[in-house]
Amino acid sequence: MRPFLLLSSRAEDLAADGEYESFLRFTGLVPGRLRRIRMEAGPLPGIDLDDYAGVFVGGGPFNSSDPLSGKSVVQQRVERELSALLDEIVARDLPFFGACYGVGTLGVHQGGVIDRTYAEPISAVRVRLTEAGRADPVLAGMPAEFDAFVGHKEACRVLPPNAVLLASSAACPVQVFRVKENLYATQFHPELDLEALITRVDVYQHAGYYPPAERDALVARLAPAVVTEPGRMLANFVARYG
């Protein structure tokens, strides 16, 4: 069976390795079937998409909607390389799943509007499936409403013209969308459980997601969250395309 590919952009080893472990856990894949490339570490190597059953893009510190002048050289390179790869992925309708940063990358690539209108603080939010979401195979078996972990500075304000809205939340109208038949993006993090989220809270405490002095209070607010369903999307994706 062909492996899946995870494209990561997290420069911090603790966050990058934790993200990989989280994707392994919720996809049910073993390391040999989930290959990882850290895009921030250097130029993207040649990728033959025929070698892969599908492609995941994880989250990270980059914001697609930031002005060019505010983007580092590394971010600009990553965005160019990822956009070129998306040209082929979209043309082939190759199975793709972008988590958080995936909304920005796939959304921009397909003509959506990504900005800071619907940013959400680090929290657990109630997500509601649309009618199309309830019928989508990657969301199969999920309840019509469920809680998910979020934390993002930008979001999709206007869907790409060819996208189908699959899920929303009260403060962020676009939580999941699909392009064509096989290209998915989520604003929430389906790969996160509470322990993994707290690791990211600590890693990114100076990244502007929350005031660092409020770390303990933030963790206390997160602790009661019961987030059990989002990871099902990753398992469904692998079951469908693997």
TrEMBL record:
Pfam families: GATase (PF00117)
GO molecular function terms listed in the Swiss-Prot or TrEMBL record: transferase activity
Any one GO cellular component localisation term in the record: cytosol
Gene3D superfamilies in alphabetical order: 3.40.50.880
The organism's taxonomic lineage, starting at the top: Bacteria, Bacillati, Actinomycetota, Actinomycetes, Geodermatophilales
UniProt name for this protein: Glutamine amidotransferase
Record PANTHER family: GLUTAMINE AMIDOTRANSFERASE YLR126C-RELATED (PTHR42695)
InterPro entries: ChyE-like, Class_I_gatase-like, GATASE
Native species: Modestobacter muralis
Keywords: Glutamine amidotransferase, Transferase
Domain Glutamine amidotransferase: 49-194
